[in-house]
Amino acid sequence: PRRYVLCEVVSEDPRCRQCIEDRAVGLAVRDAIGRVHGDYGLGCCSISFTVKYLNAYTGTVLLRCRKDFSRLLCSALPFVRQLEGRNQRYPCALNTLHVGGTIRTCQKFLIQYNRRQLLMLLQNCTNEEERRCVQKSLLSCSLTEEQPQSGDEEDDDGIE
């Protein structure tokens, strides 16, 4: 059994999101787990830990870990203070949005979360052009099946 932790990268530096890679996120999270929980915590979390998805444009990160150690992982995420990308360090934080049992539940949560964010943007629009752009984005938020899924929505990297 696994857990998927959906996070967003929060940074004041706009270049941060474009420069990060999944490897850098994985290293930063492992480093934070090691600092907070020591070698035991790092060993427990490393068994099935991986960065399943990273969208540098939106700053969305999906982490996978074993169910038994998801609380260890989540408790270490606030201690990620920087990410390294293209030989530069960017100060940032990982904000945990959702913890789910499948990738699909995380996708559904993310759609609802983005819809709420867009509604807040819509309320703060100052002119009609902004309002039309946000409304168009809001209407495009949906989870569509473009191609049939193979089996379940979990990944197929074997039994651990």
Automatic annotation (TrEMBL):
<keyword id="KW-0698">rRNA processing</keyword>
<dbReference type="InterPro" id="IPR038085">
    <property type="entry name" value="Rnp2-like_sf"/>
</dbReference>
<comment type="similarity">
    <text>Belongs to the eukaryotic/archaeal RNase P protein component 2 family.</text>
</comment>
<comment type="subunit">
    <text>Component of nuclear RNase P and RNase MRP ribonucleoproteins. RNase P consists of a catalytic RNA moiety and 10 different protein chains; POP1, POP4, POP5, POP7, RPP14, RPP21, RPP25, RPP30, RPP38 and RPP40. Within the RNase P complex, POP1, POP7 and RPP25 form the 'finger' subcomplex, POP5, RPP14, RPP40 and homodimeric RPP30 form the 'palm' subcomplex, and RPP21, POP4 and RPP38 form the 'wrist' subcomplex. All subunits of the RNase P complex interact with the catalytic RNA. Several subunits of RNase P are also part of the RNase MRP complex.</text>
</comment>
<dbReference type="GO" id="GO:0030681">
    <property type="term" value="C:multimeric ribonuclease P complex"/>
</dbReference>
<dbReference type="GO" id="GO:0001682">
    <property type="term" value="P:tRNA 5'-leader removal"/>
</dbReference>
<dbReference type="GO" id="GO:0005730">
    <property type="term" value="C:nucleolus"/>
</dbReference>
<keyword id="KW-0539">Nucleus</keyword>
<dbReference type="Pfam" id="PF01900">
    <property type="entry name" value="RNase_P_Rpp14"/>
</dbReference>
<dbReference type="GO" id="GO:0033204">
    <property type="term" value="F:ribonuclease P RNA binding"/>
</dbReference>
<dbReference type="InterPro" id="IPR016819">
    <property type="entry name" value="RNase_P/MRP_POP5"/>
</dbReference>
<keyword id="KW-0819">tRNA processing</keyword>
<comment type="function">
    <text>Component of ribonuclease P, a protein complex that generates mature tRNA molecules by cleaving their 5'-ends. Also a component of the MRP ribonuclease complex, which cleaves pre-rRNA sequences.</text>
</comment>
<dbReference type="GO" id="GO:0006364">
    <property type="term" value="P:rRNA processing"/>
</dbReference>
<protein>
    <recommendedName>
        <fullName>Ribonuclease P/MRP protein subunit POP5</fullName>
    </recommendedName>
</protein>
<dbReference type="InterPro" id="IPR002759">
    <property type="entry name" value="Pop5/Rpp14/Rnp2-like"/>
</dbReference>
